[in-house]
Amino acid sequence: MRLHVHLLSDSTGETLENIAKAALAQYDDVETIRHFWPMVRSEAHLERIIQEIAQNPGLVLFTLVNLQTRRTLETKCRALGLSAVAPLDTVTDALSGLLGQQAKARPGRQHMLDAAYFARVEAIQYTIAHDDGVGSEEWEEADIVLAGVSRSSKTPTAIYLANRGYKTANIPIVVEVPPPPALFTLKNPLVVGLTTSADRLIQVRRNRLLSLNQAPETSYVDPEAVTHEVTFARRMFADNGWPVIDVTRRSIEETAAAIIALVNDRISNE
Length: 270
Fold this sequence. Notes:
The protein is of the alpha/beta class. It is built from 9 helices and 8 strands.
C-alpha cells in the first residue's frame, strides 16, 4: 500500500518528522511518501501546499500555531475529504488543564536556539527562495543544486535536504528554454541530476493536470515528447559530468539519502 503523508510546520518540521516515524513504524507493508512543508507562515505559502496535497492526497499532520492558518488548512482538507491532524494538541490541552495556563503560541518554541537550529532554518529559507530556477545569481551559495525535468521530485527532495541543513536550489530542465549559464560554472554546490522513467513521468503529469482541471492530453504528457525531454536531460547531465539519481522507484527519503552520500563522498575526497 502506498501512503502520502504531508507534514506542515511553522518551524523546521523536526517534531512532526519524529512523530510520523514513530507512528508509521507500527505498520507493515506500507510504502510511505513523506512531503515536508516547513516554515509555513503565510496564507500564500499554504495555498501552494494545498495544491500539492490535492495532487497527492493522504494524511496531513501539522504543527501550526497561527489560528487563521490552521483553520484554512483544516477547511481545505475537509473539502478534499482528507484528515488533518495536529498531534501536539492533545498534549498541550492536557498540560493547560493541569498547569492552569494557556500554551504560548510561538512557532518553533520547542527548539533550543543553537547554531545548528539557526543553520537549518537558514537552509530552509534559502531553499524556499530558490525553488524552480529562481535566484540563479545566488546558486553559488548553495550546498546542492538539483536539476531535472518537470515533476521529477525536485522540490520535495530539496525541502527534505533543507530540513537536514543543506541549502538546496533546484532548476527545471526544459528543452525549449536553456538553463541560466550560471548552472554550468558552479564551483561550490554539488549539482545532481534527477531523472525518472518516461512512463512514470507521464503518469505523474497526468495526475497533475487532472488535479488542476486541465486538459489531460497535451504535449506535456505526450509519450514521444516526454521521452525526448528525459533523453535531453540525461545528455546534459552526462555532458557536464554531474551525478545522476533515478527517482523512478525511490521515495523522497531514499533520494535525499543518496544525495547526502554523494555530498559526503565529495567532502572526503577533497
